[in-house]
Amino acid sequence: MSVREGLSRFGKFLSGMVMPNIGAFIAWGFLTALFIETGWLPNEQFASIATPMLSYLIPVLIAAQGGYLTGGDRGRIVGAIAVIGCIAGAPDTTMLMGAMVMGPFAGWVIKTFDRLMEGRTPAGFEMLIDNFSVGIIGMLLSMLGYIAVGPIMTTILAVLMGGVQILMQYGLMPLLAIFIEPAKVLFLNNAINHGIFTPIGIAQAEATGRSIMYMLEANPGPGLGVLLAYCFFCRDKKTRQSAPGAVIIHFLGGIHEIYFPYVLMNPKVIIAPIVGNMCAIAWFSFTGAGLTSAASPGSIIAFLSMTPSDLMVTNIIGVAIAAGVSFAIAVPLVRTMAVADIDQASQQMREMKGTAEAAVISDTQGGKIVFACDAGMGSSAMGATRFRNRVKAERPDLTVEHSSVDTVPADASIVVCQRVLSERARKSAPQAQIVTIDNFLDDPGLDALYKALTQISHASELMETVPAPAPAQEAEKDDRPSLAITAADVQLGLSPVDRERCIRDSGALLVARGCVAEPYVDAMVERDRLTSVYIGMGIAIPHGTNEAKDAVQKTGVVLQQYPEGVSWGDERAQLVFGIAGKGEEHLEVLANICRILEDEAVLEKMKTTDDVDWVVSVLSGRSSGAQ
Predict the structure, then answer these.
(1) Which of 320, 409, 410, 546 places its Cα 20 to 30 Å from the Cα of 433?
(2) Residue range 416-447, pLDDT digits in tens
(3) Secondary structure of 196-241 in HEC code, one letter for each residue
(4) Right CATH number for 364-479 from 3.40.50.720, 3.40.30.10, 3.40.50.2300, 3.40.47.10?
(5) What is the pLDDT of residues 357-370, one digit of tens each?
(6) Residue ranges per structural domain of the chain
(7) Could you list the active site residues?
């Protein structure tokens, strides 16, 4: 694993602890900005809430989340207990760094203990041992935190703050922009921001009510200048027209990633945000500016919300300086650049981010990959089956499963989902790497993931050390009730219709076969509106939402063939499989569908054949489909 990948992995782990609790930082920031002596509405009583929130609530929340990421629900409890010892051992220091260390460590300890106890717990004593182990291990770790971790973290924080003081004393703070801006474009900013800037910022804000550290990475000005240069001076029409929308998303929405492709398509432009941020940091340092808490996301709205009342004009000027300098430097660079493709640059950015994410598991034995869709029934099941078959020879240690995007297992290492579901996936599985795709069968993102998982040198090492187990999924399949598909479930040679009509016709066939009640058909249409049920290779699999499961009367799969294809966005679907599932009974047919996808000749024949008996034979697994 490269240094970049390691830093990206570390940063995403830190982000996984901090971001779910960012609301607590914002609450503390508002209390500070509003009610301290120099705040907007000074109030001594309300201001007193901020101190225990910072000293106890935020460290406990972060430690609990860190424990959950490494040890599940039991790790969450042990992590929260353990960090109290750190807080008590260093009462004059905000134990944010201690929480980031002790929480994950506590989760790892309880998870290791649980593994050691597997199969060794006497019958009837499970609850007793579970509860007492959490209490005893939590107590011991809190004692360790009191004696060692708390004082050590205090020393480290003192060293870091001393370094910042030296930089400020000698006017060197602006030089940090040389590292910050390239790190953002390379997706390394989380490690720097959450691992260094935030802990120092917390300590400074506790002492003075503000900190410049919160402004170094969150300032929207440098990126704004770059985007404005593309708005007015880019020679490529498509890129120029896309920039105004990016300005709104970046400046008001706080999604800084939106300007990264504009830098990647002309790497020299990185000079603009670097110099812009250097000038802004110099201004902030000179004027003593700062924010009361983390501005997340990095929008102008969040930035000003965390600004003390006496620094509002100062901070606005700092953002304007960053944007103006960045714009002035970017203009000649954008004007003279060769015509480039913004779509290609966006794809390059996704590949850079995806490579860093996928590499996390490529060097990990026994990881779990979860394919997730809205309902966890159709598209994700087929995607998981096909990817499992594809990767099992090189990585027999991996587990590939499917689930609903809202119920991803806590031990998932990677979650593969459609782009529109990525935010729900991050909330459901903050510990996992998210790989976003457009479809579950032939997406370039799956190819990149496969490549990362099956690096030759690592695969060779695994094959020497890991015995190939019998695939768990295949064992389950043998015990699963056989689901019959008959000629009545198949309609061939249909004329093209529009997308919604196609889904409703598929639902009507499920109703006619007694598989579902009428409300399920509307749920199938709604499911496609949420996320497309087209999964690639000319195949769509309409199925209902989670809320419509009560309308399923029995498991069933129907097929409608449209030789000329039904328009599905930019694609055309020739084979439309309508699905209604109770439990996992429908997965056998989906597995057979995935099997025929491996044979391109069989797949192409199924798209045009008029032989119903042959189709039924292939889908039922009675025939390989070979000529």
Answers:
(1) 546
(2) 988 778 888 888 787 788 888 877 777 777 88
(3) HHHHHHHHHHHHHCCEHHHHHHHCCHHHHHHHHHHHHHCCCHHHHH
(4) 3.40.50.2300
(5) 544 444 444 578 99
(6) 172-192+204-361, 364-479, 487-619
(7) 373, 543
Strands 539-540 and 556-568: unpaired
Intrachain domains 364-479 and 487-619 with the same fold: no
Q: Is the pLDDT of residue 495 over 50?
A: yes
Gap between the Cα atoms of 69 and 617, Å rounded? 46
For 179, 182, 217, 273, 322, the CA distances from 192, given in Å and listed in that order, are 10, 12, 9, 17, 20
DSSP structural state of residue 519: H
Please count the other Cβ atoms lying within 10 Å of the Cβ belonging to residue 532: 18
Cα separation, 602 vs 606, whole angstroms: 6
Contact present, 530 and 545 (Cβ < 8 Å): yes
Q: How many CB atoms lie within 10 A of CB 118?
A: 7
**Residue 530: Cβ within 10 Å count:** 14
Q: Does residue 248 register a pLDDT over 70?
A: yes
Structure confidence at residue 121 as a pLDDT band (50, 70, 90): confident
Cβ neighbours for 165, distance < 8 A, ≥ 6 positions apart: none
Question: Are the beta carbons of 424 and 434 closer than 8 angstroms?
Answer: no
Cα angle 616, 557, 485 (rounded to 5 degrees) comes to: 30
In sequence order, the β-bridge partners of residue 371 are: 402, 416
| 53 contacts 327 by C-beta, under 8 angstroms | no
pLDDT at residue number 473: 42
Matching residue, tokens 């032939």? 442
Closest CA to 89 of 29, 136, 149, 134: 149
Q: Cβ-count burial of 120 within 10 angstroms (0-12 exposed, 13-18 middle, 19+ buried)?
A: exposed
> Class of the 487-619 domain?
alpha beta
Longest alpha-carbon distance in the chain: 84
Nearest CA to 13 out of 320, 364, 327, 337 is that of: 364
- Percentage of the chain lying above the pLDDT 90 cut: 29
CB contact at 8 A, 83 and 145: yes
> From CA 391, how far away is CA 394, in angstroms rounded?
6
Could you tell me how far CA 199 lies from the centroid of its own chain?
23
Peptide bond into 297 cis (omega under 30): yes
Rounded distance between C-alpha atoms, residue 319 and residue 300, angstroms? 9
Distance CA 615, CA 486 (A): 9
Q: DSSP H helical segments within 454-565, as ranges?
A: 456-465, 472-479, 499-512, 519-530
Pairing of strands 539-540, 534-536: antiparallel
481, 585 in Cβ contact below 8 A?
yes
3-class state of residue 281 by DSSP: helix
d(CA 58, CA 496): 58
Specify the pTM.
Answer: 0.53
- Is the sign of the CA dihedral 107, 112, 115, 120 positive or negative? negative
Positive/negative CA dihedral, 435, 439, 440, 445? negative
Q: What pLDDT shows up at residue 75?
A: 92
Residue 234, pLDDT score: 86
